[in-house]
Amino acid sequence: MKNLILIILCTFSTGIISQQSLISAIPNNQLITDSYTKPDSLDLYFSFPCIAFEGEYGIEGNGEDIYVSQYSGDSIAKYDRMGSVLEEFVIEGAGNIRDMAYDGEFCYGGSIDSFLCVMDMEIRNLVAKVHMPFAIQGMAYDYDNWLCYATEEGSSEINKLDFTGVIINSWIPEGANPVNITGLAYDYLYYNKGPYLWALCNDNAENFIVKYDIETQSQIGNIINISCLVAEDAMSGGLCIQRINNYYEFMLVGIIQDQLVFALDLNYVNLLVDSEENIMLKKFDVYPNPAKDKICISTSYHNNQKIICRIINQSGSVLYENSLSSDDLFINISEFKRGTYFVQLIGADGYSFTKKFIK
Question: What's the average model confidence in pLDDT over 206-232?
Answer without folding.
Answer: 84
